[in-house]
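Section 5.1 Outputs to date
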Amino acid sequence: MMRIMRKTKHNARTAAKEASHERIVSVAARAIRRSGYDGTGVADIMKEAGLTHGAFYAHFTSREAMLAEAASRACAEAAAAAAGVVASVRPEQALASMLGAYLSREHLEQVEMGCPLAALGSETPRQAPEVRRTTTRHIKEMIDLVARQLPDWGQPGAHERALVTVATMVGTLLLARAVDEPALSNSLCEAALKHLVPA
C-alpha cells in the first residue's frame, strides 16, 4: 500500500512538472515570435507562465535550451497549420489555399501565432546551433510540403520552384509586416500571390 501511494505521488509530481514545462514552452514559442529572441527574457516567460523565476532551471539547463525548444514548438505549430490547410481542400487547390492562408491579413496580424521564419529569420543566424538546426529543419519541411503540391512533384524543376516559392512567401510576409502603410502591405501580398498562383 505504501509503495502504491509513493508511486501515485511521484506520478502526480511528474505530471505537474510536465504540465509546467509545456506551459513554459508554449509561452516562449509565442514570445519569441512577438518579441524576437533577444527580446525574450527568462523572468518574463516564467511570469507569463505563472511560475517563479527560480523554477526555470528545473526545466532547462540554459536560456538557449529554452529558446531552442520554443523555436521547435513555433516551427511545429506553423507546419501543422500549413498541413491542415493542405488537408482541408482538394489536391489541385492545396498550393493556392496554403499560399492564400500564409499571405492573408489574418496571418499578417497574428505575429505571435504565425510563421517563425518571417518573425525571426533575420535574428536566427546569431542564435545557438540548436536554434539554427531547428530552423533549417523547418525550412526543409516547408520546401518539401510546397514541392508535394506542385503538379510535377518529384521532378528537379519542382524542387527549385518550391525553393523560390518558400523564399517569396517568407520574404513577402516579412516585408508586409515591416511597412507602416496598410495599402503597401496588401499590395505586397497580392502581388506575391498573383505571381505564385497564376490564374
